[in-house]
Amino acid sequence: MFTFAYPAFLVLLLAVPLVVLLYLLARYARKKKIAKFGNPEALKDLMPEVSKYKPPLKLALEVSALALIVFALCRPWGGVHSTKSEKEGIEVVIAVDVSNSMLASSTADNSGTSRMRAAKLVLEKLINRLDNDRVGLIVYAEDAYTLIPVTSDYVSAKIFLNSIDPTQYDNQGTNIGAAIDRAVKSFSADDNIGKSIVLITDAEELDDEAGAVEAAKQAKKNHIQLNVVGVGSPTPVRIPTKSGPMINPETGLPVETALDENLAAKIAAAGDGIYVNASNPDALNELEKQMDTVKKSALETNAYAVHDELFSIFGWIALLLLIIDVFILDRKIRWLDKITFFKKETAVVVLIAISAACAFDASATTNRKERRLVTQGNELFKDGHFLEAGEKYQQALKLEPESKEALYNLGLTYIRRANAAQSDSLRQQLVKAGADAMQSVAQSVKDKPNLAADAIFNLGNIAFNSEDYAQAVQMYKQSLRIRPEDEKTRRNLRIAQKKLKNQDQNQDQDKDQDQNKDQDKEQNQEQNQDQNKDQNQDQNQQQNQDQKQQQQQQPELNPQAAEQILKAMENKENQTRARVNKNGQEAAGRSKNTKRW
């Protein structure tokens, strides 16, 4: 597909019709001037050396050269292709224990980091070191399952690694022998490629210890090295669950688990490998030294997307046309009239040609420097020197700010550095820088669809690692719209959709639990109200009964007796009033006879 890096410069093609118009005006003015001297037909004999056909030919050459120079300035591209490189490496299959015991603490403290979390940290660092190798991933409990076959796609391997959860596997147990057999079958059929198995386990073999040792010996016979990485502590710790520690249904006591280092070392020795403890700071170094003893072979890996630069072709053709134009004079050829080249007319053309060549050379020099820096950055990236590679890409962007290849590769260096970052703050900063670079590249869908699809795919991976599965699904779908045949993107889309579905189900379960709690609370309130209502009714009934009993206990009076009682009460009230009036009059008389001092 033919595209331009700077299509805005195509507006300079408007100079082509302008030059033609100026030529026509010049020819018209020339004819008018000649006509002043006389009849043009009669004047032909006075100008025998003037050519009738060379001026239009020279114009065609000059206009074509101008158009080609404009095309070269627009930096034409012939398309995007992926470069391939071969490096020596081996195939590594990582087998991860997903039994319930991996939920226990990796230290002697029950509240410490889980064994599964410690295993993921070790594996992520190990994958970062397998830069030239192919890696596969399987999980096992009672049975073994292949998560990803051997591949050079480390990003997908890390995505699958982060998705491992022991609670998703119902058929529990620890069948190390089945895990080794599955790992042996996961390798490619090429016997010339070195192979190694890395077994991550707490070595608590609950099913068949002899079978595990025998499987390790069989792997050794197939020239496959088996190394064991133990996670956990020899001190027994409890296995946590959502409702508390796991309980043994037979004894009613909490289930405890401990790292069996003797069994782990025995399996590693049978597989011609070594045993290391994940808590050892030198564990990865020792493991890497042991894996270096495996025979390495040439493995083909995909590298980077690079554009085919075509500007030099247009530049060279334009320069050739200008050189030809220099040797074509306006007069007839008489073997160039004894080599008198530089007339006034040709001197102007030569100056124009030299100026165009200088401008072309300056542009070509800038482009060559930018391409050279990108190539150097690619070599450093393939060697694992991501920081130095990023510096090369930044230098290329300073020379060519619109270079999407340099920006895309720079974003990849940020993502790779984030995977190896020790602190969370640095990791977040690097991931954000990588996402910003990919977002900028993703906007160039029309000019560079394949590069934009790769950038959107990486944005989906970033969202997946952040557990934003809805955003990851959206990014993968957008990438597939641009490049529907990409099976890698389609596979990641299925994984992200599954994770999103599980996430939605968990949210719905939490919502249902909250609703059940609210309903229980309302039912309790209604029961309390009904009980209070019943108590009030009982109290009212009791009060009514007491009043009735009091009324029944009072004796009934006949009319005569009632009239006598009323008369007696009236007489008593009259006597009280008379006594009060009498006392008031006596008090008033005493107050008149009293002196005031």
Notes on the protein architecture:
- The chain is flat, with a radius of gyration of 47 Å.
- The strands form 4 sheets. It has a 6-stranded mixed sheet, sandwiched between helices. The protein has a 3-stranded antiparallel sheet with strand order 1-2-13.
- The chain is 60% helix and 13% strand.
- It has 19 helices and 13 strands.
- It is an alpha/beta fold.
Structure keywords:
3-stranded antiparallel beta sheet; disordered C terminus; alpha/beta; flat; Rossmann fold; 597 residues; 19 helices
Give a concise summary.
By secondary structure, the protein is of the alpha/beta class.
Based on the coordinates given, report the CATH architecture of the domain at 91-295.
3-Layer(aba) Sandwich
Total number of β-strand segments? 13
Largest sheet: 6 strands, mixed
Mean pLDDT: 76
Could you state the CATH homologous superfamily of the domain at 91-295?
von Willebrand factor, type A domain
Helix content: 55-70%
Secondary structure blueprint with pairings:
Layout: E1 3-4, H1 15-37, H2 40-43, H3 54-73, E2 76-89, E3 91-97, H4 115-129, E4 134-140, E5 144-151, H5 154-162, H6 176-186, E6 195-201, H7 209-221, E7 224-230, E8 237-238, E9 240-241, E10 244-245, E11 256-257, H8 261-270, E12 275-277, H9 283-291, E13 297-309, H10 311-327, H11 335-339, H12 344-382, H13 386-399, H14 404-419, H15 424-442, H16 449-465, H17 469-482, H18 487-553, H19 559-592
Parallel strand pairs: 3-4, 3-6, 6-7, 7-12
Antiparallel strand pairs: 1-2, 2-13, 4-5, 8-11, 9-10
Helix pairs in contact: 1-3, 3-10, 4-5, 6-7, 7-8, 10-12, 12-13, 12-14, 13-14, 14-15, 15-16, 16-17, 17-18
